[in-house]
Amino acid sequence: MTGTHDVINPATEGVVTTIEQVGVEETDAAIAKAVAVGPAWRDVTPADRGRLLRRFADVVDAHLEELAQLEVRNAGHTVGNARWEAGNVRDVLAYYSAAPERLFGRQIPVAGGLDVTFKEPLGVVAVIVPWNFPMPIAGWGFGPALAAGNTVVLKPAELTPLTAIRLGELALEAGIPDGVFTVLAGKGSVVGERFVTHPDVRKVCFTGSTVVGQGIMRTAADSLKRVTLELGGKSANIVFADADLDKAAASAPMSFLDNAGQDCCARSRILVERRVFDAFMGRFEAAVAAVSVGDPADEATAMGPLISAGHRDAVRSFVEDGVDVDVAFRGSCPDGLGWWYPPTAVLPRSVDDRVWREEVFGPVVAVMPFDDEADAIAKANDTAYGLSGSIWTRDVGRAIRVARAVEAGNLSVNSHSSVRYSTPFGGYKRSGIGRELGPDALDAFTETKNVYVDTTD
Ligand code: NAP
Ligand code: MG
């Protein structure tokens, strides 16, 4: 053990609990165990592996409220969101419980024999999880990784370890053998780094900041570890003049305020066609004013606090303390204890403004007019990121044209949906490498082996 860590409730600043953090020695021991139990896990028959994952899903479902309440206290998520998040872990496990029996290879016509491919597990997969969605992001890694026959070590973020620790216990309760899925609470600079340097880890599945992701990819090159990286975003919500303006404005607030804006898919830039700019802003301001910010345990709350004091300072630095930016309007938030920040809409003066270019990861949106379709696409793509985005228009042809032209992995038309467990998720450009979820997720957790059998006499 390297020491203890106080887990803090971001809505009250009170200590929720104190946990032991592991160090390199415990990390190495867990990886050694994951290696040792690998062959037995890989040899569990496909039907039985599926059955175990379904049992894991059922155990998560039976503890859904407990997990949700834990996340409300640990991460300040609204209780409605936290229930969805625990349910997402269950659903991902249920979805991938069907995968072991459908992990098909191919039979390829060749001369002189039979050629078949196999999808084989990689071995030990390390999952590194950020603090913004502790449960879903953990599940997107361990669900398909386990289904493919890998063993998994997982590190939650230092600030939000509690639900991951509980999921590790629930896996054992469901009958997943000891050592197949191990949760290691500890520091990124200790446990996370060890995952990336350890010779027996075959793949690192990382979600977090672009700068840490870049470092992981550099280090992983030494041992040619496979990486999946899900990183930051600066997604655009493009509103054309022919859109249902009432609906576009009514839905825009939660597209950047959900999870207090601590969402890699947050539509933190809104582009509005110039001739409806004022009409949109009036409706948008009224919709933001109606968002209730406060106690995340209250069923009626739409937005809770930020994760930490340090993160609130980082968010504030985009808008306050002598920053030259025009604030269009602000919503309200509690004062007193808790790391609150009000919903804030700003009008950048140019596309070079920091708030227009950098990820805020808080309840701040930047709004800018555009002139025509080409201008909208150019502005949307003028970013290093490419994770998601939305297009509001009644013109079907335009919706498809713009969706194809925006360089991002997850676009939605007349909605702000980004993540479904049954569809692929991931980023273009500096938003990451690889895709998670959807029907092809196991490709990222398997090697393809080709076997040729000579059938000549
Ligand atoms: P972060 O600092 O990159 O941390 C993410 C995880 O990596 C944490 O578990 C962290 O551990 C660990 N880590 C830190 N340094 C490490 C190192 N040198 N080696 C290995 N692991 C290390 O990001 P964050 O502050 O938690 O989350 C905010 C960022 O994540 C935002 O930029 C956001 O856009 C991005 N994000 C992206 C997605 C997506 O799907 N694309 C989803 C969520 C978040 P500690 O907690 O101990 O530092
Ligand atoms: Mg960090």
- The span between the termini is 62 Å
CATH architecture of the largest domain: 3-Layer(aba) Sandwich
- Broad shape: globular
- CATH H-tier superfamily of the largest domain: Aldehyde Dehydrogenase, Chain A, domain 1
Q: Supply the number of helical segments.
A: 14
CATH class of the largest domain: Alpha Beta
Proportion of residues in extended strands: 15-25%
Which ligands accompany this protein? NADP nicotinamide-adenine-dinucleotide phosphate, magnesium ion
List unreliable stretches of 5+ residues. none
Integer-rounded radius of gyration? 23 Å
Largest sheet strand order: 11-12-13-10-9-14-15
Number of domains: 2
Describe what you observe in this structure.
- The mean pLDDT is 97.
- The termini are far apart.
- With 457 residues, this protein is an alpha/beta fold.
- It folds into two domains: 3-231 and 431-454, Aldehyde Dehydrogenase, Chain A, domain 1; 236-419, Aldehyde Dehydrogenase, Chain A, domain 2 (3-Layer(aba) Sandwich).
- A seven-stranded mixed sheet has the order 11-12-13-10-9-14-15, with helices on both faces. Strands 6-5-4-7-8-16 form a six-stranded mixed sheet, with helices on both faces.
- Helix 2 runs antiparallel to helix 4 (79-96) and helix 9 crosses helix 10.
- A hairpin with a 6-residue loop joins strand 1 and strand 2.
- 38% of the residues lie in helices and 20% in strands.
Features:
457 residues, alpha/beta, Aldehyde Dehydrogenase, Chain A, domain 1, Aldehyde Dehydrogenase, Chain A, domain 2, 2 domains, seven-stranded mixed β-sheet, six-stranded mixed β-sheet, 14 helices, 17 strands, globular, binds NADP nicotinamide-adenine-dinucleotide phosphate, binds magnesium ion
